[in-house]
Amino acid sequence: IQGAELVVTNDTGTSHIACGVKTPxxxxxxxxxxxxxxxxxxxxxxxxxxxxxxxxxxxxxxxIDFPCAMNLP
Length: 73
Description:
alpha/beta; 3-stranded parallel β-sheet; 15% strand
C-alpha cells in the first residue's frame, strides 16, 4: 500500500492503512456508515457511495437486492 500511487478498496481497514502511509485512496462504501468508518481526510481519500435509506446495514445477505451496490454510478 505504501508504494502504490492509488488504492481502490471497499475495506475500511485497507483505507485506514492507506491514510496512515499517505497513499491516496478511493473507498467504496456500500452498507457501512461512511461517517463512522471512512478516513477523515476527504481530500486524499474519496468516497464512492449511493445514498440509501437502509444504511447502516447489518445484514450479511441483503434482503432487498443490494440497492447500495446496484445503484453505484
